[in-house]
Amino acid sequence: MREAYIVGAGQTPFGSFPDRSYRDLFSAAYTAAVESIPEPVAPDRIDEVFVGTLGVGGRQIGLAGPAVATHAGIGDAPTTRVENACASGGSALRSAVEAVRGGRADLAVAGGVEVMTDVSDDVRRWWLGVSGETEWERLTGATFAGVYAQMASAYLDTYDVDREVLSAVTVKNHDNGAKNPAAQLGFSCTLEDAETAPMVADPLTLYHCCPTSDGAAVALVASEDLAGSLRDDPVRVAGVGAGTDSVGVYDRATLTGIPAAATAADRAYEDAGIEARDVDVAEVHDCFAIAELFAYEDLGFCERGEAATLIEEDVTALSGDRPVNPSGGLKAKGHPIGATGTGQAVEAFKQLTGDAGDRQVHAADRAVLHNVGGSGGAAVVHVLECGP
Amino acid sequence: MTRIAAVGGYLPRFRLGADAIAEAWDRYQASGIDAVAVPDADEDAVTMAHAAARQALAVADRDAGSVARLHVGTTTPPLAEGDLMPRLCSTLGLPEGVMTATHTGSTRAGVEALLGGYHADETALVLAADCPRGDPDSRLGQAAGAGAAAVLLAPEGGAPIVETASHVEAYPGTRYRPPGETETRELGVRTYERDAYRETLSGAIDRLDTAPGTVDAAALQAPDGDRPYRVADALGIAPAAVEAGVRVAATGDLGAASPVFGLVAALADGVDRVLVAGYGGGAGATALLVDTEDPVPAAVATPGPEHLSYTAAMRRRGAFGDADVAGGGAHVSLPSWRRTLPQRHRLEAGACRSCSAVAFPPAGACQGCGATEGYDPVTLPTGGEVVATTTIHPGGAPPEFADQQRRGGVYDSAIVAFEADGGRTVRVPVQVVVTGDRSIAVGDPVETTVRRIYTQEGVPRYGVKAVPAEPTG
Q1: Which residues of A touch B415 (CB under 8 A)?
Q2: Contact at 8 Å (CB) between B468 and B432?
Q3: Dist CA B218 CA B206 (whole Å)
Q4: Which of A240, A287, B449, B452 is 20 to 30 A away from residue A221, measured at CA?
Q5: Helix, strand, coil proportions of chain B in percent (round to 5)?
Q6: For residue B8, which of B342, B408, B298, B417 has the smallest C-alpha distance?
Q7: pLDDT tens by residue, B265-280
């Protein structure tokens, strides 16, 4: 099997940009990714393009991939839209890696884009809602916040965990996001801010929920031969894993974790030949604070029911033994659905190439990306490593 | 002839007190009413009829499959046209061959439904449910309550209907509702309206052989707490008998359900001889006499009561209009909705033909063993246990639930575990109707009920929800 490397990565800031179209955002991210490579790369070098997007608002349900690729000037490379709800970006990255590994491409674009803030709350909730289990779960009046809140209720009850740990996750991620110029909510907050924010879906307050965002992020994936000619320090994609489960939470083996994410992690670790303890830094899918706790357990960073300890002992803080979400995570960095997974790759690329500025994790050689679709119907995990 | 074999009743949880109405309008026009029952944001005549029917069938210990006829009386069918009987049959599990009849257009419809079921002389379920509306600053609007009654007629029943009578007299302009309107009117020509009520009711009751003064309870049509006593006095019926058969003081005007609910309440109290008399504007009256031989099983569900502020009550009734939702909502097409009605209406689960694991909904590959051999129907109990739950806070509802939240405020969305035969459990997502301080937590017991899930394309869609189980013991 050929190895695949990330040779460049770039993104737009995440936030609300009423002056910019989804094509424009994608172009900007693509340009930033190309410009992050020391050597010039002509568009005709690109063999495959994968674009993750949900298409919130229905702006371009069909052919969203070609729409953004042509706008970015990529040319006529085969372009495929990848949709796995919030894991669309991670799934696009996986597709690009597999195209390179399989020999079909020497250089592939893994991109993601979403515009979510130019529609009314009603329209946005409609679009997000139909990415969950529509016919049964949704028709109990549940939203995504509601479904994660249900899982939180089961988790807090099963393991007798104090609700306040959710706020501690928020504080950590905001502290990191305050150091990230691309973050949508780049400010610090206090435990009290998080605890006393308006309730969205009990036990989740507004500060336990990620924002809705506009943004795009692109990673360029190259074969070993090409990677070496483009930069000295390409980032190897050491492992890829993905998992699938019922779209509705009620129909899964457990309510206190994301089985598809655990499966994806197992597969990615096996692919990379590593174990959880070998991971230095992780970007995880903290769409809601409870989801970061699930990520710790699904990624094997701790035993079931022990996630709160990692937060309480600062293990996952920027200065801790295994920092999680140095970017600020979905909570502070933002969550433009299709771009979230590739945005995680951008952050990990910066961390592993020593380009993460104030939030640089010390001695980060191996990173894990954890991207979850919906409430866990799909999940993708990548292991990235420094050097050859 | 068939006899009354069991009765059931249902009142919504919420009440609006006379003092709150008087404070809001500086005057109170619903004399003799202390509080009116207010339907929840997801209740209507169909859901209340269902709730009353379930009480009657449960206390009768009778299989719904034995019911041959369904008669329903209401002045407030949720659709002006469109048969709602099939949906009631489906939620109650009545056989598809059941004969159905809808009686409407008059508050007399409840007693007409009872008479219709009686004259058919086969096992019949008679339901009367109503939630009338009137201008909030009118006698009718201030008196408007909500509730339902169910009477099961069967050959072996303990209470025969011994005689019936009817009387009509043209009185135009008394209690009417023009086409397309939701609020019922009366002209306010007081003497004329009282005359219509008195003459038609007396006309029907006078046609009975039984002397009205001999009854133990008089379940008279009760538009307020005043008129039944006046007409009873003229007929020689003692005030105590009216008190035994008229519950308007605690419920408000139950419209078509009023006299039937009075009958149910009287039988539940063990009263033997009950005069039932319905009246409707226009005007007409129907009367019948029940003479109990053996006690009739009875159950009336009256959750709460929980008193609302005037504003909260008006919100629940939808007096402030519907939510204006942009973009529509999650669209489940009616054909796909219909395919799942056994699950929506009766929570029908399935046992995998390969591994026997219970699945909900019973469709697709078994999540236990992966087999695609199909499912055998499994009936779930009405009680389950909450295994995960959240409260959806104001403004956070999906668009198709925005209207419910606008009316009823917060609601709980939960996952409930039900235990089928053999200890096999299955998890089902359900909305839990919570009220006041009765929010639910993981581990709490809940009971299923049927409410309106939402309305799309003008079609109300009904389905199973849950309510916190009433404390037992």
Answers
A1: 150, 154, 249-250, 255
A2: yes
A3: 14
A4: A287
A5: 30, 30, 40
A6: B298
A7: 999 999 999 999 999 9
Q: How confident is the model at residue A228 (pLDDT cuts 50, 70, 90)?
A: very high
Chain A positions touching B456 (Cβ under 8 A) are none
Over the stretch A247-296, which tens digit does the pLDDT of each residue have? Answer: 999 999 999 999 999 999 999 999 999 999 999 999 999 999 999 999 99
The per-residue pLDDT for A7 is 98
Which among A349, A345, A352 has a CA at the least distance from the CA of A369?
A: A345
Across the interface, do A141 and B332 touch by the CB < 8 Å criterion?
A: no
Interface residues of B toward A, Cβ cutoff 8 Å, are: 325-330, 332, 336, 340, 361, 367, 387-393, 396-402, 404-405, 411, 413-415, 427-431, 439, 441-443, 453-454, 463
pLDDT digits (tens, 9 = 90+) for A300-338: 999 999 999 999 999 999 999 999 999 999 999 999 999
Q: Which of the four pLDDT bands, split at 50, 70 and 90, describes residue B473?
A: very low
User: What distance lies between CA A255 and its chain's CA centroid?
Assistant: 22
**B-chain residues near A166 (CB < 8 A):** none
- Residue closest to B346 by CA, chosen among B9, B89, B65: B89
Res. A98 pLDDT band, cuts 50 70 90: very high
Distance in Å, alpha carbon of A251 to nearest chain B alpha carbon: 7
CB spacing of A204 vs B453 below 8 angstroms: no
What is the model's pTM? 0.94
Edge-first strand order for the sheet with B14-17 is B35-38, B14-17, B306-307
For residues A200 and B392, what is the distance between their CA atoms, to the nearest angstrom? 7
Please answer whether residues B415 and A133 qualify as being in contact, where contact means their C-beta atoms are separated by less than 8 angstroms.
no
B325/A153 Cβ within 8 A: no
Nearest to A168 by CA among A280, A306, A290: A290
Continuous H helices in chain A: 22-35, 64-71, 88-101, 121-129, 144-159, 164-177, 191-196, 224-230, 259-272, 289-298, 307-312, 329-333, 337-352
B399 and A138 within 8 Å at the Cβ level: the answer is no
Q: Which of B337, B386, B390, B426 best probes binding to A when mutated, by most A CB atoms within 10 angstroms?
A: B390
pLDDT, one tens digit per residue, over A52-92 is 999 888 778 899 999 999 999 998 999 999 999 999 999 99
pLDDT of residue B327: 62
Is residue A180 a contact partner of residue A327, using CB atoms and an 8 Å limit? yes
Pairing of the two strands B3-10 and B298-301: parallel
Report the alpha-carbon distance of residue A32 to residue A11 in Å, rounded: 6
Q: Which residues of A touch B427 (CB under 8 A)?
A: 250-251
**Where residue B345 falls among pLDDT bands split at 50, 70, 90?**
very high
B283: preceding bond cis by omega (within 30 degrees): yes
pLDDT at position B88, please? 97
Question: Both tokens of residue A127?
Answer: 């679009």
8 Å CB contact between A360 and A275: no
From the list A142, A152, A255, the residue facing B413 with the nearest CB is: A142
Is the per-residue pLDDT at A129 higher than 80?
no
Q: Which residues of A are catalytic?
A: 86, 335
Please report, for residues B30, B293, B458, the alpha-carbon distance to residue B160 in angstroms, rounded to integers and kept in the order given: 34, 8, 42
- The yes-or-no verdict on residue B329 having pLDDT over 70 is no
